[in-house]
């Protein structure tokens, strides 16, 4: 197995770059401004460099490598035409501060995507500026705060977050300057109406929900939740992490959510990139459009331009206009899918999840035995006597050629194993995953040690995380091993 | 069925039967009638690849791309080695998730570690995180980190810091509840004396930038020292390319360094996706937001990498986390890593120096024209401000008509020009002669 750092390939005088020789070399920086120390940078040739990073890529598992049933992450196929369009030279070489006369195409694409996302979510307007889901949450909560402040309603200091929510929800509330009030969930992760009634009062700015929730269950009491929150003057925030379940079936705007964010890197097929860049557009109903961040793209007499003049806007939240290259991919995807294809996305995402759940529930503990949406949660193996944990199952899956599900989240169960197959997996793939999961359940009884020792065949085996945190070695010059 | 959904009719039937349903609608029956979407989206029906390509191409070509950029202001037209697009397109990198299962994500984790190693060396700091969204949000995070570390609530920013970054910090401050004081500069450079007078034990830190928004190379050492006297912190915004040749942020005793790595191999792409970065000292490492990768071993004793110091983060600490930020911009971390290693020890300095040389050549030519004068005397990297006696609108029209993207108008007919290593003598001379014709 390849095991070198780029620094270990370095040999003086090797070069991988090529620039023209400068036509001018007359200027000399004052020594007081000059860099004081030498760069400890590698010197490698281009062929060696390309082989190094190619070898690193071989140590990675991606959606194109195999099945990636990571719950809540929507690891669907990333269409290759998205990549081709995102590198269109006329889009990729456009400077963000070029005048509107020069950049009509780039602006039009943003405008079209904004309109399409508004339609899909049932919101009045969307801002494409937020960089990621967590950024979208923060911007959404800023909008909520700006709304209450404009109404002179300053006593609202809390955001309600269900205990099953993603960790970003409470963290975003803190960054937006709110305290967090937690409501308990029912066993199926839906909001406990009694707990909500007790928590909801005129100090609550709003509630953050995802629907379907983290356990893949649709909030059927959404109307009741809406009434309780709105009667007390609060707003509803929709975390769009699970939008892949409801395309063509139900729109957050129609459900009564005032503010939403979407994850274009989930539902709209842009690649996860090993952890970004993603994109987290924020949409609002008509009564909140005045608070959206600047700039917005507007169309006047068939021409497009950026508008910064929004007096009640929360302000600027990005250096420019968000992760534009991701917006191109999402727009391409929407054109490829069309209105008919988007509905098929959710139908098949939900079909696949229910199929895997039905086939595995005799082996793994299913705490909520009813139809799910795009994902579901097992609470580990049914037979707990073997001592085999969710972690062991996950690691064994890696040996069998699958990525692991999301594990130990949501926090509602001790041995959570969250499975989201997405619509782009074939039945044959799902069947081979199901076979592997059944095999693991048998191995847990017959040979638990095998599972405790897995993975055996991956580029590295179980990693010592405790030492990494206790004795942090975060750069090449620090290393002691 | 759509081409991205691989089920046959037979597959679907078998799956229905395994689940015990007869139609797909049964799986959506729980959605209450009144919130069910019964119509059709007002969108096109699915297009084939040829149609999609034509549509995007039609929109894209409404851009004018036959332009030579002499504009920067936070987004720079630089050399991008072909190695980058090729290697970042490898699907093992592009289609992976955050490296939560380190056994099958060593590729991602190792390039993050290499990035941290390169960035810490470049900026002369101890610790780098994996990435931030962009420079503006990294700056906002720096404000919150300074507040958190000092238990104070007031940040001072020099007005030579890029105005877009300052605006984002102000937005965050307005909602998070911290004060942002913007201090006017003197001759295009931070007014260190004024800031020193304002520093006291209520200030969490001071933010300066080098090269600053006007391109001027600043020395923030005195500011850092003054901060440390009142136990406040010093954040410096840097251009990572310039760091190869100008005084490093660490040598100016910064506690936090932020910036945008867009100049390191990331295309202009109308402003994103770019790559924020954030570095700090060993002392403050546990206050740093974002992902951090560490070196360790696997159970066989082999070298391995893993996300570490996660007790700072939202998925563990929830509302008590340092920040709400998760993974972000990772594929651009790979781009910047390949850029820095392709350029290497010699190339990065060569490239940075060519920016310095060519920008100075351009300024010297332009100020020979009697309608243009240099605004600030201090030395600069690859951007400079000139004031024109001609109305900016006239200049813009003339240059755009002749396929040149003019510098940014700062108001009052002051223009911020940028000249990178990509500009040839012919291109600069063309700019010069067009301005001369006015």
Notable features of this structure?
heterodimer; A: 481 residues; Aspartate Aminotransferase, domain 2; three-stranded antiparallel beta sheet; 14 helices; 12 strands; 35% helix; B: 438 residues; alpha/beta; Aspartate Aminotransferase, domain 1; seven-stranded mixed beta sheet; 15 strands
Give a verbal description of the structure.
The complex is a heterodimer of chains A (481) and B (438). Chain A is of the alpha/beta class and 481 residues long. Chain A is built from 14 helices and twelve strands. In chain A, a hairpin with an 8-residue loop joins β11 and β12. The longest helix of chain A has 37 residues. Chain A is globular. The model of chain A has no long low-confidence stretch (mean pLDDT 96). By secondary structure, chain B is an alpha/beta fold. In chain B, the strands form four sheets. Chain B has a seven-stranded mixed sheet with strand order 2-8-7-6-5-3-4, with helices on both faces. In chain B, strands 11-12-15-14 form a four-stranded antiparallel sheet, covered by helices on one side. In chain B, strands 1-13 form a two-stranded parallel ribbon. Chain B is globular, with a radius of gyration of 25 Å. The mean pLDDT of chain B is 97. The interface between A and B is large, with 198 and 204 residues.
User: What is the chain-wise order of helices and strands of chain A?
Assistant: HHHHEHEHEHEHEHEEEEHEHEEHHH
Q: What is the makeup of the main sheet of chain A? A: 7 strands, mixed
Calculate the mean pLDDT score of chain B and round it: 97
Distance between the termini of chain A: 18 Å
Share of β-strand residues of chain A: 5-15%
Give unreliable regions of chain B as ranges. none
Quote the CATH topology of the largest domain in chain A. Aspartate Aminotransferase, domain 2
Q: What strand line-up does the widest sheet of chain B have?
A: 2-8-7-6-5-3-4
Count of distinct structural domains of chain B: 2
The beta-strand count of chain B equals 15
What is the count of β-strands of chain A?
12
SS-derived structural category of chain A: alpha/beta
Mean pLDDT of chain A: 96
| Largest binding interface between chains | A-B, 198 and 204 residues
